[in-house]
Amino acid sequence: MPISRRALAAAAVTALVLPLSACGSGGDGGGTTDASGKVEGDITFQTWNLRANFKDYFEGLIADFEKKYPGTHVKWVDQPAEGYADKISADAAGGTLPDVVNVSPDLVAPLAKAGLAMDLDKAAAKYKAEYLPGAWAGHQVPGMTGTYAFPWYLNTGPLFYNKTLFKKAGLDPNKPPKTYDELFTDALQMADKTGGKVATLANVPTIEDFGRYGVPLMDKAGTGFTFNDAKGVELLTKYKQLYDAKALDPQALTATPESSGKKFLTGAVAMNPGSALDLDNFKKQAPNLYKNIGITDQITSTGHVNMYVMGLMVNAKTKHTPTAIAFAHYVTDAEHQMSFAKKVAIFPSTAGSLDDPYFTKEDGTDETRVRIAAAKSLKDAVNYTPVLFSDQMKTALRNEVAKALQGKQSPKAALDNAVKACDQLLKQQG
């Protein structure tokens, strides 16, 4: 798939509902979780819109694997981003799912429930310590024991802030807010000092905000959502205060990443998430902003930022378990993740890799500034988005949040309604 922080964010909420016929499918009686046998035979490896930009990388990777394990053959298929979830669903139902599949956590959840994703806690436990704990946990499914994909590449993004606006509002430009409490205090001061002309934020709270605030999002059994508890109501109540004070941009209810970015570019908003690509844009279009740009971590009251994680799932019905597991591990081991990270703006999920000078040593470039800031925060990051939280659920939450901010209903009622809608959608997932 296209690898960018925003693309990963979008991927993390793609809805996939497998047909009931997928349960137990796979044909030929299925495979085994015993990975101790000889690595040999033919397997199929499916990626998500990567061939166009990384053909040489993957062909070289496969050739090296086949050389290391004589008697193996890896057939690489790459699917377009458009309709990827539908393609996986159709393959699952028809028993034609590839042996190793590029997935995001939400895509793996229904496959795991259908018995089609191999439990790596059983089949590949010896590799667990090679990965960051938060990344390994990224493909675990509420209500089920086990881990259902190798963590592959990670992404996150720092927060940009306008030092000039902070200074004008009497805030320390070298001490941006780190927690939500600090953010709310600074944002109200910013709005007060500018007469409501400068908002600090341009986006309404998302499920990740509730997670970073410390709100429990879902019960452990995976049977219902819980973000309407007292802490969740507290967060939305504070956002309502920001909205009323114009500390939250009035157009936040309909904001897109593009519109939020433009608000930040023009100085109407003081803080906004971004990437190295945005820095380059500031340099060209807003040189004064660029000279006074601050880079800080995502706001979090838990001490852990949000990560987006991609993985490689092993088909539980594969006829060549040792080979499929060996290959999925090979692609995601420290050496190969590091080589991939140097070709594109992603981060390895392997333990220790983020200590490499590539992620720690400044060289004066904007790209490196952002890469170092993001890598530092990823070491103990978590994937806050529940793997069962679909795109429809995201829309339901956003709609109810909008009503609360506009004063059409209380924050408590809004979150109660959102949870009710999301629980109903969860039941429809089976």
From TrEMBL:
<keyword id="KW-0472">Membrane</keyword>
<keyword id="KW-0564">Palmitate</keyword>
<dbReference type="InterPro" id="IPR006059">
    <property type="entry name" value="SBP"/>
</dbReference>
<protein>
    <submittedName>
        <fullName>Sugar ABC transporter substrate-binding protein</fullName>
    </submittedName>
</protein>
<dbReference type="Pfam" id="PF01547">
    <property type="entry name" value="SBP_bac_1"/>
</dbReference>
<keyword id="KW-0732">Signal</keyword>
<keyword id="KW-1003">Cell membrane</keyword>
<keyword id="KW-0449">Lipoprotein</keyword>
<feature type="signal peptide">
    <location>
        <begin position="1"/>
        <end position="22"/>
    </location>
</feature>
<dbReference type="InterPro" id="IPR050490">
    <property type="entry name" value="Bact_solute-bd_prot1"/>
</dbReference>
